[in-house]
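re the bet — no i am not wrong, look at it urself. input seq straight from the record:
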Amino acid sequence: MINVFIDGKEGTTGLQIYERLGKRDDVNIIALPEELRKDTDARRECLNKADVSFLCLPDAAAIEAVSLVTGGKTKIIDASTAHRTNPQWVYGLPEISSKRREQIKNADRVANPGCYATGFISLVAPLVKEGLADSGYPFTVHAVSGYSGAGKKAIAQYESRDREFSLSSPREYALTLSHKHIPEMVRECGLANKPIFSPYICDFYCGMCVTVPLFTRLLTKKYTVDDVRKFFTDYYAESNFIKVEEEIPQFLPANMCAGTNELKIFVGGTDEQIVLVSVFDNLGKGASGAAVQNMNIMFGLDERQSLI
């Protein structure tokens, strides 16, 4: 039996982790009464009683939670941004390499990837790692997300009957070209420069579409669309959740993987300009699904358990 504590169960990610684990007979979820969820001593007790604690908290609160763990028993999976570039933590994207999967399996501290970062890294890290693109390639990334990724306040705004008219339209943000996911994108892909990142929040609940365009003349040698598609197909051939599609459709809905832990990769374009697209659920492979997958790996279980 795995004793699990979800610190921040009231948030979107925490609730989804609870739902994914709640039906399992090999998991015991440690309950913290509502009136004590911000009580430091009560949280400390739960954190140290658990075999694994999920931190679904703002960065500062996640750092505090880690400081409350006093013994060596409790493994931690942090869903915040706080530890994603910390070299003492393992970045929890197991598909990126067999070495990374082994690191997660043996880790006590795993930083769960950001949603946008998952889509970008799954496309770009293999290109740089295997030498199709140099670390100095000027990457750009465009992404759309369902509004659930913005948290409880945004969900309430979008689902309000008297909401603002502007919420019916896609809204671009991070126009200062600063976003909390960029540091992990740079680190995990081994980039020499930050990508230009243009995210949009849109009027649908969950789902994400991350797009990275490529100029083939800027790659390390001439690659065709078929070459790049085959490269990704081979790279993720053993993956349970990342799949490369044979064809790219005329329309690609961002919510096509909603409710799953799948991430689908599409490769399209021409032999001069290629477009890479990853589509997944920002609450699944982009958050709670990835967290549960990492837990399964850390405890030597089938990574697919309680995930679809």
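see?? The two ends are 22 Å apart (CA to CA). told u. also The mean pLDDT is 96. so pay up
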